[in-house]
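Researcher: Next entry: Nitroreductase (Agromyces flavus).
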Amino acid sequence: MTLLDLASRHADTDAPLITPLVERWSPRAYDPAAELTDDDVRTLLEAARWAPSANNVQPWRFIVARRGTESFTTIHDALMGFNQAWADSAAALIVNIAEVADEAGAPRPWAKYDLGQAVAHLSVQAQHDGLHTHQMGGFDAARLASEFGLADGLEVVSITAVGKVGDAAALPEPLREREVAPRSRKPLDELVIAAA
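Model: Predicted structure:
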């Protein structure tokens, strides 16, 4: 797959959705020459900032590292091998952190949910802006917390790769095969337990 056939990655939805949701998918092939500007990063973070949160606590924090920086290398080195095989071409890696306890140590039970909302807002904004994101769970959270000196109560939950789509042919097998495989989702009747 090349940059010219992105339409083949569009979601085959059962109801009309806004364009960024139809076009959103999680590539592993990123353009290794594409860069994010300061404005790009600011816009993504602004979208995350305006996500809803319980009691408007906004319990999300981010570490944004652009390719070529020491922070990017630190994050990349903490990824599991499967993710390391492709994430080095992303324009940036964003560490998504939940503030799971307040300064007094009281738990914030909805923090991870709220962080997920913020990352979803960031992802939809990225798609709208012609960028793509890929969420990752394979990483060493303790290593990242130590490397970046995260305070107690802050928990690394996920990492987001951001950038422009590259050529799938540059990926090693079996990642190349997964990159071009047909997209699928469970049908709604498997996801909805009850609807009145």
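Model: Note for the record: The helical segments are 19-23, 38-49, 70-78, 81-87, 111-128, 141-147, 175-180, 188-191.
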